[in-house]
Design brief:
Chain lengths: 228, 301
Amino acid sequence: MVEFKDVSVTYSSGVDALNKINLTVNDGDFAFVVGPSGAGKSTLIKLILKEIDATSGEVVVNGFNLRKLRRRKVPALRRTIGVVFQDFRLIPTMTVYDNVAFVLRVIDAPAKYIRSRVPYVINLVGLSHKAKSYPTELSGGEQQRVALARALVNDPKLIIADEPTGNIDPALSYEIVGLLKGINECGTTILMVTHEHDLVRHFGGRIININSGSIAFDEVIGGTNENK
Amino acid sequence: MRISSMRYLVHQGFKGIWKNRMMSFASFCIMLVSLLMVGVSVLLWINIDRIIGGIEDKSEVVVQIRDGISQEDIDQLQKNIAALPNVSGVEFYSKDKAWENMMEGMTDEERDLFRYADENPLPDTFRLTVIDIKRMTETITQIDTFANVESTRSPTAFTDVLISIRRVMGIISGAIVVALIIVCLIIISNTTRASVFARRKEINIMKYVGAKNSFIRIPFFIEGMVVGILAAGGALLLTKFAYEGIYNIFNDDFKLWSVLGVSNLYPFDQLFVRIAIAYAATGALIGALGTSFSTGKHLKV
C-alpha cells in the first residue's frame, strides 16, 4: 500500500514539485499516473523509492514510514518494490537470464531458488527462447519485457512502471500494459506513469492526474476495451 | 551472506579485472612502482638501523674503580652495577691486564719509557655494555652514585649522534611510506573511478532493486585487492633481485667494516616473509580502499 498524507516537496532550487498531496493506493490496485511534464510525477516516484525525502508530510510504502526510515534500511524497502523504467536499464554485459537473476542475487536468494524462479518469470513474459541473448540483441519490446521480468522476479508487493511504453512501438505498448494488467490480477499493486492517453483510455481503471504538483483528478474510468 | 552469493561476488570481482583490463593494468603498474618505493625506503631504513645498531653495541662504558679497595668491595661494586636494569654485561678489567695490553700495543722505544716505573699507574676498571643506548646517560648517573667509583667514561656524544641519526632516518622513512601510501590511494581511486563510472548504470540498477552498499562494493573491493596482491607479487620479485644484487656487491666490504662494529646488510632470506606479508597487506589494502573510495559517490541513490 502507498499512502501520501499532506506531502509537499520543494527542491533546493525553490521549485515546489508537490503541494500537500493526499493519495492512497491500496494493495492490489492498478493506477495510471498521468499529467504533463514537470507536473510532479517523477517526484512522486522518487518519493516512493526514497530517492528523495518529502519536505513535509508523511509517505508510507508497503508498511515503511519513509520519514522515519534510516538510510541503511532503504534496501529493505526497495526489495518490496519492482521498478520498470522507460529506458529499460538492463545491464548490456549480462544475458537476459543474468539480468533477471541479478535481482535475486542482490537479495541473497538461495541458488536453487534462483535456478527455478528465473526461468519461470522469463517464461511468464514470453522470452524463454531468448534467455541466453544479450539486451542489444533484443527489440525494444523484448527489452521492456526483460525489465518487467526483472521487476517481477522477487515477487514485489508494488511495481512502479515509469513510462514503460515510452521507448517502444505503440502496438507493443498494449502488450506491455496487458502484461502489467495480468501481473496485477495476481495481486501485485501497479503504479504506471504514462503520457499515452490512448493507452489509458483503452485499458481504463484508476487514473491519477497530477498537475502543477497537485492531484487534479483521481477517478476510476471504464476502458474502451471493456466496451468491445 | 550465503556461500553461493559470496562465490558470485568473488567471481564478479575477477570478471571485473578482465573486463577493465586496461584500467586494471594501469592500477597494477602504479601500485607496483609505489610498493617498490615503499619497500626501498623501508629496506634502507632497517639496514641503516642495523648498521648503526652494530656500532652502538660496540659502545662501552668504562667505570674506573677507586685505587686500593679490597677484592670484596670490587665484587660488591660489580654486583651493584650488574643489577642495574639497563646493564647487559659487566666485565672486570684489572689494572695488570690493562698494563699488559698497553705494553703490547707499544713500540720498543715507547716501552723503554715505562721500564723503570715503580708501579702500575693504571686503575682497575669495569667495562660494561648497556641494553638501551638512549638511557646510557641515566645509567652512568646511577653508577656515579655508587661507592668506590672513581670516574666513568662513555662515548655519550658519539652515541647521541647515532641516536639522532636513527631517529631522523626513522621519521624520514615513516613519512615517505605514509606519503607514498596516500599518493597511491589517491591515484588508484582516480584510476578506478573511470571503471566505476563505466559501471554506474549497473550500480544504479543494483540500488533500485535493493542491493546493500556492501553487496555493490564487494566485487570492486575484490578487484582492487587482487590487483594489489598481484602488484605486491611483482614488487617482491623485483625487490628480491635488486636487493640480492646489492647485498652481493657490498658483502665483502662489510666483512672488513665489521671490525668497527658495522653490521652487514640483512640477508634477503631473513626479510623475505616480513616483506612478502607487508607488500601483500599494503597492496591489498591500497587496492581495496582505493576502489572503495571511488564507488562511494555512486552509492548515493
